[in-house]
Amino acid sequence: xxxxxxxxxxxxxxxxxxxxxxxxxxxxxxxxxxxxxxxxxxxxxxxxxxxxxxxxxxxxxxxxxxxxxxxxxxxxxxxxxxxxxxxxxxxxxxxxxxxxxxxxxxxxxxxxxxxxxxxxxxxxxxxxxxxxxxxxxxxxxxxxxxxxxxxxxxxxxxxxxxxxxxxxxxxxxxxxxxxxxxxxxxxxxxxxxxxxxxxxxxxxxxxxxxxxxxxxxxxxxxxxxxxxxxxxxxxxxxxxxxxxxxxxxxxxxxxxxxxxxxxxxxxxxxxxxxxxxxxxxxxxxxxxxxxxxxxxxxxxxxxxxxxxxxxxxxxxxxxxxxxxxxxxxxxxxxxxxxxxxxxxxxxxxxxxxxxxxxxxxxxxxxxxxxxxxxxxxxxxxxxxxxxxxxxxxxxxxxxxxxxxxxxxxxxxxxxxxxxxxxxxxxxxxxxxxxxxxxxxxxxxxxxxxxxxxxxxxxxxxxxxxxxxxxxxxxxxxxxxxxxxxxxxxxxxxxxxxxxxx
Length: 501
Prior knowledge:
Strands 6-3-7-8-9-10-11-15-14-13-12 form an 11-stranded mixed sheet, sandwiched between helices. A 4-stranded mixed sheet has the order 2-1-5-4. The chain contains 18 helices and 18 strands. The protein is of the alpha/beta class.
């Protein structure tokens, strides 16, 4: 065992002990944090406008600060972008994390001196929990790859700005720098496919032990490795022990990723966002992600079915229930105040609090009143694949197909890129439809009433999703394919790309 692996064991034990301290009373830890956040930011422009100095309880926060998304806080973010100090948090941010997805274009999320440790320590703490739980630290002695965005930064209002993964790349601990791949020069390549080829060249022949990234882009890397060598990834890298995923749920990709590896490896799931590193899988085999309740983020949980009400309930960690869907709202030392992240979660444990990420509050399908969420379509697909074990899915999305002909009722369209298609597409489609009916009573009611007819399965050629994402400038990096939508923009884009291939 190398020195890094050996030293990780006492550090892992210390880290787990530190987490156990706040886990004894998560609600009290969160209350202390809220008071510290409000007191620290009381004299900022936002603090004075919202009387943060009088915030001592969650009820005080609810009374003074409404839930807002990026657009709602955009006037403050725009001030921050000019370089103005003391807007949302004392001083100026260290960085701005640039991401996409709003109606007005790119988002610029502040990362402050106080909040940078949240991003840096999240993945480290996840790996140390893994070491403590398994006693297997040898991956630290090999080469580690983090498939990420470019670390090159631009200046916005005098503030270094770039993709979150690129920013964090600048803070990889020195003791891991020698282990890290790809090289800085390769990481700076903008074109994803060119970058991927360079990563393959740099990693072939290296003792890779840990591979990390967003599952669909890691799959592209695995496919390139196999195309270059004719061997599964587990043979190309015989010391590869640990796969770390984040950004989207690994479940829809798990079977194909593991097949590409060709042998079992351990996996850890993370819940990072530009707004903060929120949770990680602390127990191998337990799908729940441990919320990080003592790392600068005060959490509120809005029941998902009530999120769009004028004044929905805002629950604290001591008020949530198992099995219910909640939209996440964050207040943090990055200067986010009652900020709607857009993600939904479901609690699977309360002691300590663990969640699974179930989708996006705006990425749901309810064109006909069915209120289908991402977790439900992913579970329906897993059930259909279980019944048809020959099937391998690369990527998929679901869209409404609204009929203007009354004699032809409307339906859902599932656009699926198969690595291995079903032997009988009609039977597979029926299994999908049945599985979704079992998981969503609204959909089942619409099907029983013939308001919706059985879903339409549209197989897409291999590479369709990659070509579409490339066509809209979102191939690789931190970009994700929406599982659901209430319009057909993505579906029609995929159809057009497929027709032209």
